[in-house]
Specification:
The protein is mainly β and 134 residues long. It contains one helix and eleven strands. It is globular and about 40 Å long.
Length: 134
């Protein structure tokens, strides 16, 4: 059975740090581009970061998180991480982990991953809440 389970969310004061984890089962993360998305209710889904599974291993970061967030993957543990430092109030959102065949496809069509899931373009976790207070 395929599953992605996020953990590590919570509440933190501005300037603090959190590390999100995303544990995969039923497939190998090395076969996919691994992304982190976030969404505030009523707002559009935002691609936060996407790790390329090609040999160059490049990683995309949204401008809003560059220099503060770092994505990584541990193939042995079949887990990806999102280290979030210098958190801001505007980082408050539900964060989703995705294993994608088409990187960035999760932003299409409303709720994060809804269209991509319907089109069988990868796998999605259920999300973890991150709340940053001032």
């Amino acid at each position: 059975e395929v599953d992605l389970v996020e953990s590590g969310g919570g509440s933190v004061q501005a300037g603090g740090s959190l590390r999100l984890s995303c544990s995969a089962s039923g497939f190998t993360i090395d076969d996919f581009d691994m992304g982190w998305y976030r969404q505030v209710p009523g707002n559009e889904c935002e691609l936060v970061t996407s790790m390329d599974n090609d040999r160059d291993g490049s990683t995309f970061y949204a401008d809003s998180v560059k220099g503060r967030f770092t994505a990584s993957r541990d193939v042995a543990k079949n887990t990806v991480y999102l280290q979030m430092n210098s958190l801001k109030v505007e980082d408050t959102a539900v964060y989703y982990c995705a294993a994608e065949e088409v990187p960035g496809s999760g932003v299409r069509g409303g709720p994060c991953g809804e269209w991509a899931t319907r089109e069988s373009l990868g796998y999605w976790g259920q999300g973890t809440q991150v709340t940053v207070s001032s």
